[in-house]
Design a protein that fits this description.
The protein has 411 residues and is mainly beta. It contains six helices and 30 strands. The strands form eight sheets. Strands 14, 16, 17, 21, 22, 23 and 27 form a seven-stranded antiparallel β-sheet that branches. Strands 4-3-2-6-8-11 form a six-stranded mixed β-sheet. The protein has a four-stranded mixed β-sheet with strand order 5-1-10-9.
Length: 411
């Protein structure tokens, strides 16, 4: 059987490399999908948990040879569609129950599924007209980041390939596939002030360096890397311009909440910032690395937090702390009012050990949720520019299966 474990981002790594194996002696292959969730609609962004499932909306079932040639293919469609008339179309419900595919050529040695792709990304017409003849043709097709964020990332693109083995039913071949999400997710639930920040306002949180598309092979292409122009003299205007094309990677739904931290004499009141809707997170889809491949050319993530109305403690040359109104200081220096007091927290690295400045940055892998922990705004990691070359701030990460990974801003 082809068993599809589709728990969201909580799937084990699966090899897609083909190997020469003995040809199948039977033309029958039994396919059954398990743990596949059907389509639904979700418009909010709650944090992902280990029990969340990726929905299966559409896809392609592909039978191939050791040399990548495609011998048979089937389009997988929702059972809500009209009666299926084509021999190359199969209902998702039929695969859930289990379906026997007869007449599969004897040189077929592997089976693959690509799911939740748009017609623009991979279409049935390309299989039918001979544009796609080899599995490598499928792997070279491009999936778009803009298609991964919809409905709280409930139907991100999925993929796996496995070799056929002798089936439990005599005269059949079988394989067990685990569909692996082809993207990852960054979650931020809360931003708090560091000990030297008295007042501040969080105006925006932006995923500011990312791949806007990726081949199904999940091998990075430098041409697909996108970011705002870090050298622009007016960072705020550049962020507005750039993210007009990527609104799902910019969050300005932000509210302030007064909280008390510490106990007894140590207790103090601080302002924390949360998503406007209670219980939600700021969430960003992105293309990480594939655990199946060595992709040394993969770029990491960049994250920018825009902050204003700052009042902070700064030390003088003697080490004494003094309260500064950053907005007023900027105005005194002749900075225009619309730019005065605006600073940017620039993050271009993530580590797994909190406050360990010597830790190596972690690699981001598809199929994981990275949750940011202890996200603090401090005077030591703010700049009046976006991504200045002389600033390198790390952030921390821990993993739970979608897989969920916790991340701590390492300041």
């Amino acid at each position: 059987m082809v068993a599809l474990g589709s728990m969201l981002f909580g799937l084990s790594a699966c090899s897609s490399e083909e190997q020469d194996i003995e040809q199948a002696s039977s033309g029958n292959v039994f396919v059954k999908l398990e743990n596949v969730v059907g389509p639904s609609s979700r418009m909010t962004e709650p944090a992902k948990t280990e029990s969340d499932a990726t929905e299966f909306h559409n896809g392609f079932l592909i039978f191939g040879t050791p040399k990548s040639a495609i011998r048979k293919h089937y389009q997988i469609v929702s059972s809500a569609k009209e009666e299926i008339k084509s021999d190359h179309v199969v209902l998702l419900d039929d695969l859930r129950k289990g379906k026997n595919f007869e007449g599969i050529p004897g040189d077929v040695t592997n089976v693959a599924i690509v799911a939740n792709v748009t017609e623009e990304e991979l279409s049935a017409a390309e299989f039918q007209n001979g544009t796609i003849r080899f599995h490598n043709d499928v792997l070279n097709h491009i999936i778009q980041l803009r298609n991964q964020h919809a409905d709280n990332m409930s139907h991100v693109a999925l993929y796996d390939m496995k070799m056929l083995q002798a089936g439990a039913i005599k005269g059949t071949m079988s394989a067990s596939l685990e569909l692996k999400p082809m993207c990852a997710r960054l979650e931020i639930a809360k931003i708090t002030p560091g000990p030297d920040v008295v007042e501040y306002q969080v105006d925006g949180i932006y995923l500011s360096g990312f791949y806007n598309r990726m081949p199904i092979s999940q091998i990075s292409n430098r041409e697909y890397w996108c970011s705002p122009d870090y050298d622009k003299e007016d960072p705020a205007a550049e962020l507005q311009r750039f993210f007009s094309g990527y609104p799902y990677l910019a969050n300005t739904d932000i509210k302030s909440v007064t909280e008390t931290v510490g106990e007894g004499d140590e207790a103090k009141t601080v302002t924390a910032f949360y998503p406007e809707t209670d219980g939600k997170v700021w969430a960003y889809p992105f293309f990480g690395e594939s655990e199946l491949r060595n992709d040394d050319g993969h770029y990491g993530l960049r994250l920018i937090v825009k902050v204003s109305n700052l009042k902070v403690y700064l030390k003088d040359e003697n080490g004494d702390k003094h309260l500064h109104n950053v907005t007023q200081d900027d105005k005194d220096k002749g900075i225009p009012e619309d730019k005065a007091g605006i600073r940017y927290l620039n993050i271009n690295g993530f580590v797994e050990e909190y406050h360990n400045t010597e830790a190596e940055p972690v690699q981001f892998y598809n199929g994981n949720v990275y949750t940011v922990q202890n996200f603090e705004i401090t005077t030591q990691n703010l700049s009046d520019r976006i991504m200045p070359t002389d600033l390198n701030v790390n952030i921390t990460v821990q993993v739970k299966p979608w897989t969920i990974k916790k991340v701590y801003p390492q300041i």
